[in-house]
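hey
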């Protein structure tokens, strides 16, 4: 048997380059993006944006007592108009992806912020948000979306849904049609999709619709609210299941926030089938898509679509619902909760 020749030792140049790369990664701050929403209904100043804008261009420094993490955390924020079309345009770009939905469209809410936080309307993310916001070269390590939920406390969402969106957005537009009318997606966690027909009820739905159509318009509204499936994610999202789940330990995060006196805080599995839910699903799906489509970085276990290997660490995504101001949390309470969550997720403390 021929002797095995050991591999040549790395040159000093290669060793130095590897060391420099590792040092650069250690020195690079964690990059975090916080999004809040624009006006909706009679709410002109969205509490979610009141929190997010306070954290723009803020740097968090590691706590001094050992063991102390080495990397700082840099936070930026942007404003999302309450628009299905804008979500489909902006959120994929946040994750370094081109929009795939034919319904993607940039929107500007004239009632929203005018400092560039919702972009200029003419140019896509990130150029349309410059110079206020700069997209990090290596992408974001964490994206947290904030929205307004029920009063009574903060809710941290575990998952988001692909279909069932029946409410019009702030621009009076319905959600885009989902990819499987009269069907629902089985399974969860953003993998490949499968469908099951609702079949036996479709004929009954037709008879009920015909009967109600002979009555007043309010009866048709009743039918639409309770029986029509609503819109969702269609073209471009065929490979994603009906539920996408965050990889963040929401129960652990909630326990930490409660222990630190930030309550009432609870975990939730129902973001509400409106723009909050829609944005969360889009962000989770695009984070997974970016992980799968990338050809650089370290392989990550478990992140795949249809079995395709993951090639880069997946951007962590989370959605936090805050109540209206004073019900019971203030804007400052909300800001502190988000900061505590960021530190716990990225520093582990």
């Amino acid at each position: 048997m021929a002797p095995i020749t050991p591999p040549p030792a790395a040159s000093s140049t290669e060793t130095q380059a590897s060391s420099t790369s590792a040092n650069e990664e250690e020195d690079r701050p964690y990059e975090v993006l916080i999004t809040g929403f624009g006006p909706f209904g009679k709410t002109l100043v969205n509490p979610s944006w009141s929190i997010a804008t306070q954290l723009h261009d803020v740097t968090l420094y590691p706590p001094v007592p050992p063991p102390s993490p080495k990397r700082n955390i840099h936070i930026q924020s942007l404003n999302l108009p309450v628009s299905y079309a804008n979500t489909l345009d902006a959120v994929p770009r946040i994750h370094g992806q081109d929009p795939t939905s034919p319904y993607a469209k940039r929107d500007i809410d004239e009632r929203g912020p005018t400092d560039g936080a919702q972009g200029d309307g003419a140019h896509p993310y990130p150029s349309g948000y410059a110079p206020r916001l700069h997209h990090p070269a290596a992408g974001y390590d964490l994206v947290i979306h904030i929205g307004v939920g029920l009063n009574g406390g903060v809710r941290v969402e575990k998952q988001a849904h692909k279909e069932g969106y029946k409410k019009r957005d702030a621009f009076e537009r319905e959600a885009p049609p989902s990819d499987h009318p009269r069907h629902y997606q089985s399974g969860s966690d953003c993998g490949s999709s499968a469908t099951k027909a609702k079949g036996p009820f479709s004929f009954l739905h037709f008879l009920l619709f015909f009967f109600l159509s002979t009555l007043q318009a309010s009866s048709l509204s009743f039918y639409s609210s309770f029986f029509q499936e609503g819109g969702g994610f269609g073209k471009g999202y065929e490979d994603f299941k009906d539920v996408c789940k965050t990889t963040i330990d929401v129960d652990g995060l909630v326990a930490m926030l409660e222990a630190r006196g930030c309550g009432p805080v609870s975990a939730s599995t129902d973001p509400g089938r409106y723009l909050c839910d829609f944005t969360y699903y889009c962000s989770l799906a695009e984070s997974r898509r970016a992980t799968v489509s990338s050809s650089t970085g370290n392989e990550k276990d478990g992140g795949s679509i249809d079995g395709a290997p993951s090639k880069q660490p997946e951007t962590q995504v989370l959605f936090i619902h805050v109540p209206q101001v004073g019900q019971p949390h203030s804007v400052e309470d909300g800001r502190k909760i988000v900061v505590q969550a960021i530190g716990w997720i990225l520093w582990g403390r």
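The chain has eight helices and 13 strands. The helical segments are 12-27, 47-54, 84-94, 202-213, 217-226, 250-259, 275-293, 331-347.
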